[in-house]
Structures are given as structure tokens and as C-alpha cells.
Design brief:
It contains five helices and four strands; from the N terminus they run H-E-H-E-H-H-E-E-H. It is α+β, with helices and mostly antiparallel strands and 99 residues long. The chain has one domain: Glutaredoxin, CATH 3.40.30. The longest helix is centred in the first third of the chain and has 12 residues. It is globular.
């Protein structure tokens, strides 16, 4: 599941969420299903960890923070604002509310 925006557009938005996943991640599938039912109110983009080399190159702190998938990064105007490890809908919404 991904919006029409690519990750560069999402990280450049006023507020956007990039969710890093993996093919064999069951929690990623659960999060995708939950967000399909109740989408976030900000732009979002899903990217497989194996395909995120350029994202990680541009945001190395985000890259080094990823240890438990799914992992969500909250960005604002090209700047990383928060990293949510073992991301759930509630954790993402809580982080967005605290901005």
C-alpha cells in the first residue's frame, strides 16, 4: 500500500510518513491492513528495506534507527522528526500528535 507520492515527495511535505517494511514481515502486513481500513491523515509511502538505499543515504540517522520492522519515519519539509520502531497505527498517530 502506498500513496501516489514517492518517498522524496513525502519527506518534503509539511508532514509525511515513510514506512519501511520487508517481504517476510508479518507485522508489516498487519500494519498495512490496519492503515488500509483507517488511513493516516498525512501523506505516506511504503518502501521495502531492500529498496531504500537512496532514502537511507539521504537520511542516515533514520537508517541506523531501523532495527525492528515495520519502522516508520515522520518527516517535515525534508527533515526527520521521529522514528517509530515496531510501528503500529497507534504509535504513528501518537507521534504525529506530539509534533
Amino acid at each position: 500500500m502506498a500513496d501516489d507520492m514517492g518517498w522524496p515527495e513525502v519527506v518534503s511535505a509539511d508532514v509525511g510518513v515513510v514506512v519501511v517494511t520487508a517481504v517476510d514481515c508479518l507485522h508489516c502486513i498487519e500494519l498495512e491492513a490496519a492503515l488500509a481500513e483507517a488511513p493516516l491523515e498525512v501523506p505516506s509511502h511504503w518502501i521495502d528495506k531492500e529498496e531504500a538505499e537512496e532514502l537511507f543515504r539521504q537520511f542516515p540517522i533514520f537508517a541506523t534507527s531501523i532495527d525492528v520492522l515495520p519502522c516508520a519515519g515522520i518527516f517535515s519539509n525534508g527533515e526527520g522528526k521521529a522514528v517509530i520502531r515496531a510501528a503500529t497505527t497507534q504509535r504513528i498517530e501518537d507521534a504525529l500528535a506530539s509534533l
